[in-house]
Specification:
Number of domains: 1
Oligomer: single chain
Helix content: 55-70%
Order of helices and strands: HHHH
Shape: elongated
Number of strands: 0
Largest sheet: none
Number of helices: 4
Length: about 160
Amino acid sequence: MNLGQLQAVDNEPELAWRLARREAYDSLSALVQATKRALFEPQAVRPPLAPLSRLVAHSYQLLAQLTAVKTMLLLRRGHLNLDLLTDSLMKTAGSLQAILAANPADAKTVHSPYHAQGPVVLPDPFEGDLSPWLLRRLSLAVQLGEQLRVDADEVLGASNM
């Protein structure tokens, strides 16, 4: 979510993003493998599979949203109003860090008109400014982060029983 990454695809922030993304996918893969092995364990020691499945699904969805944001920033930046988006990008990054670190009180709300429930009308993505589409993805990322936090708390609560 750092606009400094827009300078080149091989600079330090870009390499850090790629490494973090790879680590996230490797961690998710390990969780999926552990969950798969747990299916063969006795019922009494089996972890809570339903919440774990939701946790994995929401994790992949969050990574997909963040990758889409990154792709839009890199490939479609000429169609984005970066002055308008800078604050939202920073707030989203802070919100996700706070939410995923189990500090929801520290999360800053992303002020986006696309954080509404129900259908949202967005402009044609092939004409003009794509900023509303990026704001929508940021909003979805925060919502997925909140759901991921709920999933993680549910998994931890169920496994402590």
